[in-house]
Amino acid sequence: MSSNSFGKLFTVTTFGESHGPAIGCVIDGCPPGLAIAPEEFRHDLARRATGRSRYTSQRHEADEVEILSGVYEGRTTGTPIALLIRNTDQRSKDYGDIASSFRPGHADYTYWQKYGIRDPRGGGRSSARETTMRVAAAVLAKKWLAEHHAVRVRGYLAQIGDITPDAFDWDAVEQNPFFWPDAVQVPALENHINALRKSGDSVGARVNVVADGVPPGWGEPIYGKLDGDLASALMSINAVKGVEIGDGFAAVAQRGSEHRDEMGMDGFASNHAGGILGGISSGQPVIASIALKPTSSILIPGRSVNLAGEPVEVVTKGRHDPCVGIRATPIAEAMVALVLIDHALRHRAQCCDVGPVAPRIP
Ligand code: EPS
Questions:
Q1: Which of 5, 22, 320, 340 is deepest in the core (most CB within 10 A)?
Q2: Is the CB of 17 under 6 A from ligand 1?
Q3: Which 8-state DSSP code applies to residue 70?
Q4: C-alpha angle 143/147/151, rounded to 5°?
Q5: For residues 299 and 317, is the Cβ–Cβ distance under 8 A?
Q6: Which tens digits make up the pLDDT trace of 68-77?
Q7: In angstroms, what is the span from residue 328 Cα to ligand 1's centroid?
């Protein structure tokens, strides 16, 4: 079995490897009439791309999108939209040693066990390069959600290692290469990542995503719950080891009287639920959080085995991110937007004759 597509009505299929000639996606089910131009992909793709700051991988890709189908005279036609980005800065010699051994903590070993063959160049299909196409597809999703439902999906880096923001300001998030919400701490983060890179090690991170404007009703109990689909989509991002919705695992230590979000006709008193009740959006902001593991491709030697089953010491050369979480904010936003547009269309398909139902809490 293969699984490179997701979404039921807004379906995205991605293809391509990190060091192949190109990566791409096909989006099927995009509503017709949405205005879109190749330039509109640039902003989010640049936010995610490598080589845009000294704190990420130094591979330099233009990440220019070619629209191959599904758009006529600047508008989506309702037919499959194929997007292509050509790879131009592959440096496959960095992966010479890894072709015959497995990086500890990397998908090298499991891809080999599953398929019995792998493209070791740049991690092949397991590379974070693939997330480029998710971000590209989500440009359409974000635009449609904004135009049709005034939904805005925004993310930020909420933790690097043991550092958390001391203050929170959405305006600060886009003003630094970390998507960090506290401008005052940015120099400290720069020093932290510089020191980490020098030591040859890596660190984990947490990214939070908030979707404002989601109306009540999106999500399909029982097996297509909004939180279930968000968890699956977010967990599919490379290096993600945990997903929380709302208070997430903090709910374990809470009382019911504390966790419940009390309601009045002037609104909800809190949002511990993260905007989802019973798998259906409540009308409150949808809040998701992900934990990303430290990059496994590091310079610190680690014990492993080679193809012959012999013990080896692995050192990963190349142009790796000291913290994959730094570039993960636009990727997490993309996955949330793709799930939301899919559920918007699914809700419209089944329940377009229903709401809004009184009473509706603002
Ligand atoms: C990656 C390794 C690096 C990153 C890459 C993700 O690739 P390379 O070894 O070819 O330099 O640059 O990220 C991207 C190219 C991208 O666009 O995100 C990995 O092992 O996942």
A1: 340
A2: no
A3: S
A4: 80
A5: yes
A6: 999 999 999 9
A7: 13
**Ligand 1 pocket member 105 (CB < 6 A):** no
* Pairing outcome for strands 71-72 and 75-76: antiparallel
DSSP code at position 250:
G
Confidence of residue 98 (pLDDT cuts 50, 70, 90): confident
- CA gyration radius, the chain: 21
pLDDT, the chain, mean: 97
Which atom of ligand 1 approaches the CA of 327 most closely?
Answer: 18
Angle at 45 (CA atoms; ends 40, 51), nearest 5 degrees:
140
Contact 327, 52 (CB under 8 A): no
pLDDT score of 1 more than 90: no
User: Helix (H, G, I), strand (E, B), or coil: what is residue 211?
Assistant: strand
Task: List the residue whose alpha carbon is closest to atom 18 of ligand 1.
Answer: 129
Nearest CA, atom 10, ligand 1? 122
Find out whether the beta carbon of 124 lies less than 6 Å from any atom of ligand 1. no
Q: Is 104 helix (H, G, I), strand (E, B) or coil?
A: coil
129 lines ligand 1 (CB under 6 A): yes
Dump strand ranges (E) for the chain: 5-6, 11-16, 22-28, 66-67, 71-72, 75-76, 81-86, 152-160, 205-212, 240-245, 263-264, 267-268, 276-277, 280-281, 286-292, 302-305, 311-314
The tokens describing 288, both together, are 């998701």
**Ligand 1 atom at shortest distance from the alpha carbon of 319:** 11
Cα distance between residue 237 and residue 126, in whole Å: 10
**CA-CA distances (angstroms) from residue 202 to 292, 293, 294?**
11, 9, 5
Mutation test residue for ligand 1: of 314, 320, 326, the one with most atoms within 8 Å of CB: 320
Contact (CB, 8 A) for 125 and 104: no
